[in-house]
Amino acid sequence: MDALSQLFTHFRFRTDLFFLGRLCNTSTHAESEKGYLHLVREGRCLLQIPDTPPIRIEEPTLIFMSGHMQHTMTPLDTGGLDVFCISFDFGSGVRNPLTHTLKRPVLLQLNSNPDLLAVANRIFTETAERHCGYQMAVHHLSAYFTIQAVRCSLRLRHLDTGLLRGLADRQIGLALSHMHQDPAAPWQLDTLAERAHMSRTRFALRFRETVGVSPMDYLATWRISLAQSLLLQGVPVALVAERTGYSHNAALTRAFTRIVGQTPTAWLTQQREQMKAAEEAMDAEAAEQTMIAKQATSAERAAAGSGAWLNDQGTGI
What we know:
By secondary structure, the chain is an alpha+beta fold. It has two domains: about 5-160, Jelly Rolls, CATH 2.60.120.10; about 165-265, Homeodomain-like (Arc Repressor Mutant, subunit A, Orthogonal Bundle). It has helices at about 5-10, 115-130, 135-155, 165-170, 170-180, 190-195, 200-210, 215-230, 235-245, 250-260, 265-315, and strands spanning about 15-25, 25-30, 35-40, 45-50, 55, 60-65, 70-75, 80-90, 105-110. The strands form two sheets. Strands 1-8-3-6-9 form a five-stranded antiparallel sheet, with helices on one face. This is AraC family transcriptional regulator.
């Protein structure tokens, strides 16, 4: 299995098409665990990131961004933007391995990338036509579109540093693939350099230049991301430690706390509380919508009854 496929299969990769249509007002986005894909099919806008010069979008463009960069899209035309927005993550509370090292947005021109444009048009068509099963079709198309965007970014080498840049490098990609495939192995700098067919010194320098962190720091972060995913699946801490290359619970706890800022148990408790609160909020919203629908139905029935009665009396509409 290639390194990118390993990335998607090791975690609970999720996509959410959360907006599609005409964007006529300023829209702001920022969730650190998420990656964002904003596809501007028609119209012009200003992309603004704090402490960064604004970027003008004046042709059909895909904007690929990390959620840790708060960003605002402001339409420049009175007609707004024809746009859709997809967010993606790898599980609640799990650091996004694709975007957490992105320092700036990646801009992909749609006219130069027909494969992306074709999938984007299919998403617009499915949503507009709303044939039977369109919601499931859009869900899978959104996931496919995200993968295509990653592929395109890799092919065009639009990235300064980060995991995607590392995957695009043939030799560094080999080392990444080995780490992804067998995270519990007792990897050392020497053995990873051997897998990349490079000297120890050259490998360490090139890995940092390409990915943005040292090989051993990347391995530690990768292991802890896997540990988070396993904990959310209900795997006991002792087994999580074994599967992620730590000799005992205490070693995992030390590494986990250093990277995440909490112990595994405290982090998992927090995630469960947040998920419970989110579920309760969704249930409350669903109950409110049901009540509104019932009230609307009752009002319609009352109006229909009143109208019929008036007609029966010969004085109605």
